[in-house]
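As agreed, record copied across for absentees:
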Amino acid sequence: MCRPKPVYKIDLSKPQNIRWLAPEVWHTGETCFATDIYAFGIMLWEFFEIPYNIPYSNWKAITVKERVMCGYRMPAPKSMPPLLSALMRKCCDQQPDARPTAIELRRHLERINEIPIILIYKMRDL
């Protein structure tokens, strides 16, 4: 995750948690608030992956980097409600400017939280 300043430079020659790194980080070596939102999208996937596996668990690190940079994203876990799977896709958009801001993300989660849980899961069957 990034620091309080808007942009933080990371050293890509050192080990990184690449399974959570946004694709633009590989080009610039910089993290920012949009890269944090991307990592949050990956964490959403983790919350619903049953049984738990690390993201891209069947791939070597170099494959994760190449595929993510080319636009591949993991499909939503079967246990993930549709509203959250749509949010996960938005958070992991290839374009940083297309991802929600932290404020937008909070509002979206608050709206989802107001919906009774049974309805969230029934939406999958519609």
